[in-house]
Amino acid sequence: MKGNTLPSMLPKPVGRQREVLYLPADGHTVILGTAGSGKTTLSILRTLYLSDPCTDHGGPTLLVTFNRCLVTYVKHLAGTIQRPVNVQNYHYFARGYLENRGKLPWGSICRPEERLRFIKLAVHEMRDEGIQSTMLRRSEEFFDEEFQWIQQHGIASKKDYVAAERIGRIATRVARAERPLLFDLYTRYLNQRQQGGKSYDWDDLASAVLREFQLDQEKRRYRHVIIDEGQDFSPEMLRSLAAAIPENGSLTFFGDIAQQIYGHRVSWRSAGLTATNIWRFEENYRNTKQIAQLALALADMPSFPDDPDLVEPTAPVADGPLPALKRLANESEEREFAVSQATGQARTGTVAILFRTRDQEKSILRHLPSEATRLHRSLQQWPSGPGLFYGTYHAAKGLEFDTVFLPFLSDKCWPHPADVELLGEQEAAVRNSRLLYVGITRARSTLVLTYSGRRTSLLPKTEGLYQI
Q1: Contact 323, 449 (CB under 8 A)
Q2: 168 pLDDT exceeds 50?
Q3: Whole-angstrom Cα distance, residue 237 to residue 255?
Q4: How far apart are the first and last CA of the chain?
């Protein structure tokens, strides 16, 4: 790369990666890739290329991803970058911009538990006024989920909400006739929140950022924005990031629709990105062919819906053992097995134990050695060398390990009962299947799956995929 020495921990770009790395430094670029295709590595390399002061396109560059744990990992991979480069998660970027604009008073973002309380107050307000509807009997969690959908798609009026097609869900869970009343409830929630001294929640921060950029006549801080794990970003987040660059700037989107686990399920096109050519990375450089075959079989199941942006990977050439599938007597044995096996293997490689829920994560904590690293937003420095990691599937997004243990894959945990109750069986199966895909594809060479009782129906039953 001109004017730059590649960080030693990053592999050199190969094949089509080199073409994408040096694409024009203006406008919108979309790269869709399968798991293990080098998207995060390439996002770092493109960041270095676009920020290179020795070029005519060089300028301040923002590399933004979804969770803070991945930010720490990306900084570790990138090494010390002596450039006008910032690596941030989206909400850090959003808060910083709103604060700079004088639009973020201290304590003005409501926490999730406060959000549910404001929703409950809005429901009681409507009931106290004598409004009768069976819809008002639904749980605060149901309204919370629906309000997220409204906010993440930037819907600002009752008319737009009524007219909206439910492209973010498999089925319409709110009848069109009920939407005016539900939007009234949403408006009352916003009023309750404002009265409680909270101007925002985490889902409408992006709309606030977009509004400010539309009013902001000052020079943009960043000339280039690069989005890693872009499938996790809501449409409003993407719109706000597109508004953050000047006319001669660039936005580069890296994403994998198969790993879209937060329920947005919308095309990047609906967010207004205007890329003319879509680049697709089918090569899987991370997983062995045995692990990739299991991931492919999972993606072929009915619970994995088709999507025009889904990239089907080519089979990797790296060989390895079949994923191990073990049935144990109970969850206690699963914990003991995962900890003993993972601790031993962590002496010579990176090993992760991943969980569907935080409660499962907590249940294993006292059994782990003290030096184990928790995958969490508070992780400030990425450990070098071999070691043991643990955390949720969500926290492991974008990461990779030599060996991955996935315990508790029973039918009572997958799909998660709370998801089934809130979303219905079909939608819960979709989201949990994609989450399971994320867990499987974190493993480079060794994958161990365990369950007690009956194994989840989300796992493929094809013979020859597992060693049992």
Answers
A1: yes
A2: no
A3: 14
A4: 47
The whole-angstrom separation of Cα 96 and Cα 101 is 9
Alpha carbon separation from 414 to 52, 68, 88, 97, 361 (Å, rounded): 46, 26, 32, 39, 15
- Give the Cα separation of 162 and 150 in Å (integer): 11
Task: Please give the angle made by the CA atoms of 214, 220 and 221, to the nearest 5 degrees.
Answer: 135
| CA pair distance 81, 118, nearest whole angstrom | 44
What is the C-alpha separation between 258 and 39, in angstroms, rounded? 14
Whole-number pLDDT of residue 166? 66
What is the band of 14 on the pLDDT scale with cuts at 50, 70, 90? confident
Beta bridge partners of 444: none
* pTM score: 0.90
As given in the structure block, the two tokens for residue 185 are 């409830």
> What is the Rg, in whole angstroms, of the alpha carbon atoms belonging to the chain?
23
Of 303, 305, 287, the closest CA to residue 295 belongs to 287
Q: What is the pLDDT of residue 269?
A: 78
CA 4 to chain centre: 30
Cα–Cα distance measured from residue 58 to residue 224, given in angstroms and rounded to the nearest whole number: 9
CB-based contacts of 195, cutoff 8 Å, min separation 6? none
Which amino acid would we find at residue 126? M
Measure the CA–CA gap between 132 and 137, rounded to whole angstroms: 10
For residue 203, pLDDT over 90 is answered with: yes
Count CA atoms within 13 Å of residue 232 on its CB side.
20
Inter-residue contact 264 to 168 (CB < 8 Å): yes
